[in-house]
Amino acid sequence: MGPEFYDRPVVLVAQDLVGCVLAHAGTSGVIVETEAYHQSEPAAHSFGGRTERNRIIFGPPGRTYVYRSYGIHALFNVSAMRDGIGAGVLVRALEPVDGVDLMRARRGLQRELDLCSGPGKLTQALDIELKDNNQDLLAGPVTIAPRPPGWEQVELVSGPRIGITRAMDLPWRFCARGNRNVSKPWPPGLLDGAG
């Protein structure tokens, strides 16, 4: 998945990343939840314009944007849209695939559903830190691969983004329907028809 995948409207990129595989440091997981952010709305880091901190989110597309939230958690994002547009996708949750025991050791937890069910949890589980900011997703060390077998068609549930105080009405949160690895609160309809 080269820059052309990310050089599209950020909402489409956020939707199409669900089902792809995020990998780093001997661990990987299928992306089951994302949120889109764009410079036109006040919840985006890019809303006030380009700064030294947010410059990566302005492009080029397909770069990692890792920042510290509340001085505690590293959060993982990817830059989207053409160079010069402040848009990105926050990866919020994964379904663990490879290196689950390593994830357990990093998180100090055993229950698989607790390993990557939130943006700070997944970065800890995959050992993604500020050192991984502004990296090319093709070259790594953090990579995103296309949807694997069984994930070619992903039914999405959308809803308002969470953990923000502005532009909360935009339905730019996208989750894999039926997946219990999604962060809480779950969006309405997540488990409808999923058993």
Folded structure, characterized:
This protein is globular. With 195 residues, the protein is an alpha+beta fold. The protein contains 4 helices and 8 strands. The model has no long low-confidence stretch (mean pLDDT 93).
Structural features:
4 helices, 8-stranded antiparallel beta sheet, 8 strands, alpha+beta, 195 residues
Describe, in short, the structure shown.
This protein has helices at residues 3-6, 10-17, 100-107, 119-125; strands spanning 21-24, 27-38, 64-69, 73-79, 87-98, 143-145, 156-159, 173-176.
How would you summarize the topology of this molecule?
Layout: H1 3-6, H2 10-17, E1 21-24, E2 27-38, E3 64-69, E4 73-79, E5 87-98, H3 100-107, H4 119-125, E6 143-145, E7 156-159, E8 173-176
Antiparallel strand pairs: 1-2, 1-6, 2-5, 2-8, 3-4, 4-5, 7-8
